[in-house]
Write a structure and sequence with these properties.
mainly alpha; 14 helices; globular
């Protein structure tokens, strides 16, 4: 075998490889925390299924009340939760949250084993979950910024998104298996075990909380002080042009994209006579699209030490792609086409989240990391609650295809406005 003509290309390749810095591995502390967090996501998803199943035995209104209790408690307290995390430190708040949830899930398992699943017990469990979420979610949302360099944030958050999506896909089947094997107590015990593991991971995690909001003195330790700090976070985010635009875009995406597969997809399958299998196919295709894009973003990264470029444009393009998928779903004549639309919707929303998340987290000041994450959670939750109710009513009167088409228009308009926004284009 001759080597003539092969040396020059190899030399060029070597020179090109030397010119490109090697992509560094994500920090080991982040990967350890992420592994524990993904286990926690899986346990939470399994318990959520078990709670919903137990609540359904009391009727549809009761099941809706249990789920609403979690959302309302989280929404009411999340801004205060962000202020607490910025003041005390994300790690401390997460340790407290995991300890509370470990005790709560053990108590739920014991109570459900002794008394079954009365509605009062389910509502109390939902209230505890919602309150802990209000403090835990802003703290956990700021952890990647504390553990990962700015240039690797997109890859780190994409990996987290992929793990969370995988946990969501596996959580319901796991919850069903646990309920079949041991009822609600079994699901609660498995979730308790996941909290115990995450608690141990956090205890030995080498991260400090140096970035705390400065105290204002005179009553900052009282609830009124926390409210003032939460309000300061809102003022900061709404006064920053980039954060304001990103939060508005996140709300528009949550209100127009998230209800499509969760609410309107099953309604479309019923109205079209496709059956429950088609509804599951549509939901699975959407999840697969999110997971595929998240894995791709996690593998690609942005290069060693380089900040992400075109994050705002990428988020807007992802939302436009999701809008195209939703439009295809609205017009789908058969389940296969609906699944293709859901797959495109998931891929677009995955790109949107994978680009907007690092943008928001990177733009937040060190002293306000958790409060900005809390505001992001609040904006998305409020938009989702408002749009879900309105879209459900419209589906009852006009059929599911009309609200799906409106969601496509809303998502497409939001994406187009974001593409035209100078602030987001320069982000």
């Amino acid at each position: 075998m001759t080597t003539t003509g092969s040396l020059a290309p190899d030399a060029d390749a070597d020179a090109s490889a030397a010119a490109r810095p090697a992509r560094p591995a994500l920090p080991a502390p982040y990967l350890r925390w992420l592994a524990g967090a993904q286990l926690g996501y899986l346990g939470d998803a399994a318990l959520a299924f078990a709670l919903g199943w137990a609540a359904a035995a009391h009727g549809g209104a009761a099941a809706g009340l249990v789920l609403t209790m979690i959302t309302v408690a989280r929404t009411v307290l999340v801004l205060v939760g962000g202020a607490v995390a910025d003041r005390l430190g994300a790690r401390r708040v997460m340790l407290a949250g995991d300890a509370v949830m470990l005790a709560a899930t053990l108590a739920l398992a014991a109570a459900a084993g002794l008394r079954g699943s009365p509605l009062g017990l389910l509502l109390l469990a939902a209230l505890v979950i919602g309150v802990v979420d209000a403090f835990y979610l802003p703290a956990s949302g700021s952890m990647p910024r504390l553990l990962v360099d700015a240039g690797e944030l997109p890859r780190a958050l994409a990996l987290r998104q992929a793990g969370a999506q995988l946990a969501a896909l596996l959580g319901a089947p796991l919850g069903g298996a646990l309920v079949a094997a041991g009822g609600l107590p079994a699901a609660a015990l498995v979730d308790a075990a996941s909290f115990a593991v995450l608690l141990l991971v956090l205890l030995f995690l080498p991260v400090s909380d140096p970035r705390r909001a400065p105290t204002a003195g005179n009553g900052t330790d009282r609830p009124a002080g926390l409210v003032r700090e939460a309000a300061a976070g809102v003022r900061l985010a709404t006064g920053d042009r980039l954060l304001r635009a990103a939060l508005l875009l996140a709300g528009a995406a949550a209100g127009s994209v998230l209800p499509v597969v969760a609410l309107l997809g099953p309604l479309l399958a019923r109205a079209a006579g496709w059956g429950v299998g088609a509804a599951g196919l549509v939901a699975g295709a959407q999840g697969a699209g999110v997971l595929a894009v998240a894995v791709l973003l996690a593998r690609r990264g942005t290069g060693a030490g380089r900040p992400p470029h075109g994050a705002g444009t990428g988020a807007a393009a992802g939302l436009c792609a999701a809008a195209a998928g939703i439009a295809l779903l609205a017009a789908a004549p058969v389940p296969a086409v609906a699944a293709l639309g859901a797959l495109l919707t998931g891929a677009g929303s995955g790109l949107f989240a994978g680009r907007l998340g690092p943008l928001v987290l990177g733009a937040a000041p060190d002293t306000h990391l958790s409060r900005v994450q809390a505001l992001l959670t609040l904006v998305q939750s409020a938009a989702l609650v408002l749009s879900t109710g309105a879209l459900g009513l419209l589906a009852d009167t006009a059929g599911p295809r009309v609200p799906i088409a409106l969601c496509a228009l809303a998502a497409g308009a939001a994406g187009a406005l974001a593409l035209a926004s100078p602030v987001l284009r320069r982000a």
